Amino acid sequence: MKRRYLLLSGLALLTASAVQAQAKLVEKVTKQGTELVIPYEKYVLPNGLTLIVHEDHSDPVVHVDVTYHVGSAREEIGKSGFAHFFEHMMFQGSDNVADEQHFKIITEAGGTLNGTTNTDRTNYFETVPSNQLEKMLWLEADRMGFLLDAVTQQKFEVQRATVKNERGQRVDNVPYGLVGEVIAQNLYPYGHPYSWLTIGYVEDLDRVNVNDLKNFFLRWYGPNNAVVTVGGDVKPADVVKLVEKYFGSIPAGPKVQNMAKVVPTLDKHRFASYTDNYARLPLLVRTYPTVPAYDADQAALACLAQIIGQGNNSVLYQELVKKQLALQASCFSGLSELSGSFTFQIVPFPGKPLSNMYFLLDQALAEFEKRGVTDDDIAKFKGGYESQMINGLQSVSGKVSQLAAFETFTGNPNRIGEMLKKYQAVTKDDVMRVYNKYIKHQHSLNVSVLPKGQDSKMLIADNNYTVDKSKYIAPDYGYEGLKYVKAKDNFDRTKMPGNGANPVVTVPAFWKKDWPSGIKLIGTENNELPTVTLSIKIPGGHLLNTNDLSKVGQASFFTDMMNDDTKNYTAEQISRELQKLGSSVSVFSGNEDITFQVQTQKKNLDATLALLQERMFNPKFTQDAFNRIQKRTLESFKVAKTQPANVADEVFGKLNYGNNHILATDPSGTEESVKNMKLADIQAYYDNYMTSQGVQVVVVGDVTEAEILPKLNFLNNLPNKKITIPSVAAAPKVEKTKVYLVDVPKAAQTEFRVGYNTGMKYDATGEYYKAGLMNYTLGGAFNSRLNLNLREDKGWTYGARSGFSGGKQTGDFEFSAAIKADATDSALVEIMKDMKAFAETGIKEEELSFLKNAIGQRDALRYETGFQKAGFIGNILNYNLPGDYVDQQSKITSAITKAEIDALAKKWINADKMNVLVVGDKAKILPGLQKLGYEIIELDTDGNPVQKKGF
Question: How far apart are the C-alpha atoms of 925 and 741, rounded to whole Å?
């Protein structure tokens, strides 16, 4: 690594005239040899803004990230959720960007965007074709310096509702969703910056006003509290000029100092509990305070967590899960800027009290002390971390995110090599030392989560901790007297920049090979990183049981067994060897195939392929593994019945296809089919359906055709037999729209599924593709009619979408959203109104223009990572597509007319012939639904009628 520093006065930077707005280069890092480094240039503007530029011309894309060093930790008691709420408000327009236009401008430019908030920072980011860079910087600068006059009470209210819906979807309406909140309240002292969740409390969101939010912006959203990171197909000098132009004149905000790191101390074991509306099984969570991020013990704690509770070699898996005492058992080390924690989570098998789990966890830790830390443990940890770091650099967004985070929290973007060295330096003694320091004989918080109706005897212990509010002193963050001062420019900021020259987008070059054994191979070389991704698809899968539903789930069960023991390795041994290599080999099933997926560094390719060959040709189907997987699968079905979104997905399939259709069944099977499965069924699948005929192999990475083909010759040893996938029966047609209701008492939201089976197969350049274009305006983008109406205008949901899906035999149209419960009937009215209007009047000219621009320019983002390249060439092989099918799609998109879109909408979007499924609180939502005039049929969570004649 070559690192060059320039010395300059920090005081001079902050006091220099904003009119000059000249960025000063303070550091330049370049790559030397094979070291792990992300090259960059770092600048600071007179207003305190930090700029980092990473130049990478491998793909015609650019990623822009603006990170503000403010998260929920900067909030205070009674005003939680501000940072996250403000993240939403930053997308609602500014002086020169109209309401709902931020998403539209970026999407129309062929880009993607989002924002995230955590305890310590908020970031906004977009990935776009490289010719759109100036427009992105103009957008980000406009909301940094020209936001508040565009913040209206109406926008405020809509986003307040949207944030509450997000909380409902992610916290209040899911099993164990509240456990993080209970941990935060009981682990940290009252008023500690981490004693509430980033999403905030509903009551706090209800009490804040628009002026509170404006003050939050003025206090924390100045350029001196921000890092702008730009990476991709750019020249640093060009980026610097644009950042000086658009950000340089924005006045600095109030000074922001880093917060003090405060790790809580516990004077005794704490016990807390709550009853969960959705959980079917109880949960034990034990948490120990540890250290903040970037502490010297960070790597050792991560290694400790892996040894004790991650993967099938872990102590918890061996002591609890494999012995079928617990359904799940894991642990992880989570470190944030101000504090950290080490957390255990255990879900017992039904009937086993949490008090047993508490003592079993203690016994497992005692077993860890006896076993100690092995050389294999350390080798696994180092190999896995190295691969994780390298794989994270596949995309420009991954590199930019690393640079931005390192700068925000350490002031040094060049930390990736240092982090790798620290993780590679971990020793067995380090791991035992942090165990003894932070876990052994230390006090912990223990939370019992109980399902509804569970006897209190299931508790670990009675609650023994009361939050002490008496010592809280509200922080003075300096909100008094803040003034909104806008930048003064020597250019017209009201004019949105145009596009630069269109980047040249080339699809990956690929090679193809057909072997006499029936194996078809396709590959593309990609030497940006020393990694190789390999996918092997063998015909088979879920649809093999089309004509025998008593065996449904056989393929899924088979692949679970294929991930277990082999003749020469136990599952634990093969997992250990793969982790030491930093590789993965996994087997999973789809509708029409089973897939062997491989990820490895090139230097470990041969060793990894040897393990793949072992897994593929030497499985060992034992009764013990069969019993364990069968029991786990049966329990997972019961757990899924408590999750409204899962229930909605399962029941909707039955509505679209009918109860006795293969596509109406879960690929994992049913309780009956899995319960009746025998070990002989697994062996029969291997004997009958492992074949070379029709096998599809996809190779992407730092390997040539000449290198890889000899290494894959072992695949020719597969039996050469013809496998025929049965044809699925036609689904019943929907004669009229009916509403089907599944009752989930006290559900905070209603899960919506609206649609039908189209019978339309996947076709890359035919009507299927064109129907997807048509749906883009209705429900396929953030700025679609459905999402703008239900989320941005009404504030009823966190997100609404619709789309067509299709395979080789059939397809579906589906609308989905989680809607706040008391808006269920109103939302259904709006959904149907939008669908009817689109089918009757079609697309508007401005919508058609938006569609063509957005779809037509997104190709630059489609082939950046190895996984994206694999998806592209894999699609060519799977559907026998021509190599130029993407060019054909581009021509179709640019040529499609309003008349074609309108005709497709009339054909495929018929609101009078849809299955409408609502999964929610019957007592709350039924009265409103009954007023809409639809026939309503109640179903149970298995999709069976509760009342044949409705209500």
Answer: 9
Give the model confidence (pLDDT) of 694-705 as tens digits: 999 999 999 999
C-alpha to C-alpha distance for 588 and 532, rounded to whole angstroms: 19
Which H helix or E strand runs over 577? Answer: helix 571-581
Q: What average pLDDT does the segment 763-774 reach?
A: 97
Q: CATH number of the domain at 511-717, please?
A: 3.30.830.10
Q: Is the pLDDT of residue 817 over 50?
A: yes
How far is the C-alpha of 103 from the C-alpha of 692, rounded, in Å? 47
CA 438 to each of CA 288, 358, 759: distance values in angstroms, whole numbers, following the listed order: 7, 18, 58
> pLDDT digit string (tens) for 95-110?
999 988 999 999 999 9
Question: Could you report the per-residue pLDDT of 670-716, keeping only the tens digit for each?
Answer: 999 999 999 999 999 999 999 999 999 999 999 999 999 999 999 99
Strands 749-757 and 915-920: antiparallel
What does the block give as tokens for 468?
A: 């002490």
What number is the average pLDDT over the span 621-644?
Answer: 92
Fold assignment, 738-939: Cytochrome Bc1 Complex; Chain A, domain 1 (3.30.830)
Cα–Cα distance for residue pair 662/546, rounded to 1 Å: 5
Model confidence, pTM:
0.91
Q: Answer for the pair 898, 848: CB distance below 8 angstroms, yes or no.
A: yes
Q: What are phi and psi of 437, to 5 degrees?
A: -80, -40
pLDDT at position 736: 96
What is the secondary structure of 721-783 as a DSSP string? Answer: ----PPPPPPPPP--S-EEEEEE-TT-SEEEEEEEEE--PPP-SSSHHHHHHHHHIIIIISTT
What is d(CA 444, CA 39) in angstroms, rounded to the nearest whole number? 42
Domain boundaries, the chain: 2-247, 270-396+403-458, 511-717, 738-939
Q: How far apart are CA 724 and CA 742, in angstroms?
A: 37
Q: With bands split at pLDDT 50, 70 and 90, how would you rate the model's confidence at 220?
A: very high
Distance CA 715, CA 722 (A): 16
- What residues are paired with 333 via a beta bridge? 342
Q: Residue 432 is encoded by which pair of tokens?
A: 């035992």
Torsion angle defined by CA atoms of residues 94, 98, 102 and 108, in that order, rounded to the nearest 10 degrees? -150
Dihedral angle at the C-alpha atoms of 13, 17, 18, 19, nearest 10 degrees?
A: -140
Helix axis angle for 571-581 and 605-617, nearest 10°, is 160
**Cα-based distances in Å from 393 to 335, 416, 501, 585:** 22, 10, 27, 21
**Per-residue model confidence (pLDDT) at position 100:** 84
Strand partners, 278: none
Beta carbons of 192 and 15 less than 8 angstroms apart? no
Domains 2-247 and 511-717 share a fold: yes
Task: Quote the strand ranges of 610-748, DSSP E.
Answer: 696-701, 738-743
Average pLDDT over residues 212-220: 92
Task: Check residue 573 and give left, alpha or beta (phi > 0: left; psi -120 to 50: alpha).
Answer: alpha
pLDDT at 484: 94
Q: Which one, of 920, 916, 926, 914, lies nearest residue 742 by Cα? A: 920
Residue 708 CA from chain centroid, whole number: 32
Other Cβ atoms closer than 10 A to 761: 15
Query: Which class in CATH covers the domain with range 2-247?
Result: alpha beta
Q: 173 pLDDT band (50/70/90 cuts)?
A: confident
Q: Do residues 685 and 719 touch, judged by C-beta distance below 8 A?
A: no
Q: Which residue has the tokens 């949960």?
A: 283
What DSSP designation does 947 have? -
Which CATH architecture does the domain made up of 270-396+403-458 adopt?
A: 2-Layer Sandwich (3.30)
Token pair belonging to 159: 């986003």
CA distances to 89, 190, 224, 434, 912 from 94, rounded to whole Å, are 10, 36, 20, 49, 40
Count the neighbouring beta carbons within 10 Å of the beta carbon of residue 300: 28
- Which has more pLDDT, 33 or 623? 623
Task: Give the distance from CA 174 to its chain's centroid.
Answer: 16
